[in-house]
């Protein structure tokens, strides 16, 4: 269970991922490769929303740190995805600072709001978020919404885990996710998905 009694989001392969991580911590290189295959697609999608075409380079830096500090990790498969997302986010923000690119900041979300979105909104966004074009569309959301959507939908974290990655309260992440998915569904319904090329998080309005 997560904070405030929210159940942890369970991915289909979290058990296998956790077992692979445990073996990798004992020095099993093949198990580390298994963990990498489970985590990398979602991690790369998240980083594309943050740094655009530099995502693979940033992911490579993140995996170097993950491999270096692997023995210090404590947790299960879901926890490992959260831990790797935190490392990847730090590397992405370092990268943006080096480029002197600042993701656009937005007004603080009202933490007290709890606005569960209708299933149709969520499902419509889920159906398209696996594509590169859709990830580019996510990059046009306000920063807090984009990161929340990427962590919840692409990386697959539950609300409390995403909140820990972002350093926010779960209520704020829940609200940002809802607003981002609602905006995406509205854009997809009105305009369809367009391919305007990759961007970095917060550059579009």
Automatic annotation (TrEMBL):
Give UniProt keywords alphabetically. Sigma factor, Transcription, Transcription regulation
Known Gene3D superfamilies for this protein?
A: 1.10.1740.10, Winged helix-like DNA-binding domain superfamily/Winged helix DNA-binding domain
Taking every annotated instance into account, which residue ranges of this chain make up the domain RNA polymerase sigma-70 region?
39-100
Q: Where is the RNA polymerase sigma factor 70 region 4 type domain?
A: 135-184
Record's signal peptide: none
- Mention any Pfam family matching this sequence: Sigma70_r4_2
Q: Where are the transmembrane segments?
A: none
So what family is this one in?
Answer: Belongs to the sigma-70 factor family. ECF subfamily.
What is the name of the protein in this document?
A: RNA polymerase sigma factor
Q: Which organism is it from?
A: Streptomyces ardesiacus
**Taxonomic classification, please?**
Bacteria, Bacillati, Actinomycetota, Actinomycetes, Kitasatosporales
């Amino acid at each position: 269970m997560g904070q405030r009694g929210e159940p942890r989001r369970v991915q289909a392969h979290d058990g296998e991922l956790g077992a692979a991580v445990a073996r990798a911590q004992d020095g099993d290189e093949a198990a580390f490769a298994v963990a990498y295959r489970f985590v990398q697609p979602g991690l790369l999608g998240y980083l594309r929303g943050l740094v655009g075409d530099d995502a693979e380079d940033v992911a490579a830096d993140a995996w170097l740190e993950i491999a270096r500090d692997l023995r210090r990790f404590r947790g299960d498969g879901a926890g490992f995805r959260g831990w790797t997302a935190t490392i990847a986010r730090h590397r992405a923000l370092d990268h943006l600072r080096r480029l002197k690119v600042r993701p656009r900041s937005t007004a603080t979300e009202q933490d007290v709001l709890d606005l569960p979105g209708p299933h149709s909104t969520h499902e419509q966004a889920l159906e398209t978020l696996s594509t590169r074009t859709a990830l580019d569309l996510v990059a046009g959301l306000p920063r807090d919404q984009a990161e929340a959507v990427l962590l919840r939908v692409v990386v697959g974290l539950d609300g409390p885990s995403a909140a820990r990655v972002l350093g926010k309260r779960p209520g704020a992440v829940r609200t940002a996710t809802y607003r981002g998915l609602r905006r995406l569904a509205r854009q997809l319904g009105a305009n369809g998905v367009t391919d305007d090329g990759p961007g970095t998080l917060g550059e579009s309005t």
